[in-house]
Amino acid sequence: MIPDRDRIYGAVVRRRLRAMGIRDKPISPASPWQNGFAKRLIGSIRRECVDHVIVLGEMHLRRILQCYAVYYNDVRTHRSLDKDAPLVRPIQRTGSIKSHTILGGLHHHYVRV
To answer: What's this model's pTM, rounded to 2 decimal places?
Structure first.
């Protein structure tokens, strides 16, 4: 188990882990990049967004990341959620399919209208 250095992982938790035969190896102090969940999200942001966009400044980057966050939570499918988005949306069974561009065409959202 690789926990961060949060105080909730105190001596009681460490004793219980050892009793169950699980070794813990906390991440280094002040090293959030060692957290697997954060590392995976940062990798997704880089691969799916920032690596394909020329950033023109801090405010531009903030707008790009806000738009990507909406896409990531509302539209993008996730394997761990059985190819659904974190914010559940209704199934659209009828209508013609239209494409909505996201991040200037970097990603698309297909909906029935």
So the answer is: 0.60
- Angle ∠(74,76,79) on CA atoms, nearest 5: 120
**Gap between the Cα atoms of 53 and 37, Å rounded:** 24
Element of type H or E holding 43:
helix 36-48
Domain extent, residue 21, equals: 1-32
Q: What is the pLDDT of residues 62-95, one digit of tens each?
A: 999 999 999 888 888 877 788 788 887 788 888 9
24: which residues sit within 8 A by CB, 6+ positions away? 1, 2, 3, 9, 14, 17
Check whether residue 54 and residue 74 sit in a common domain: yes
Residues 108 and 69 in one domain: yes
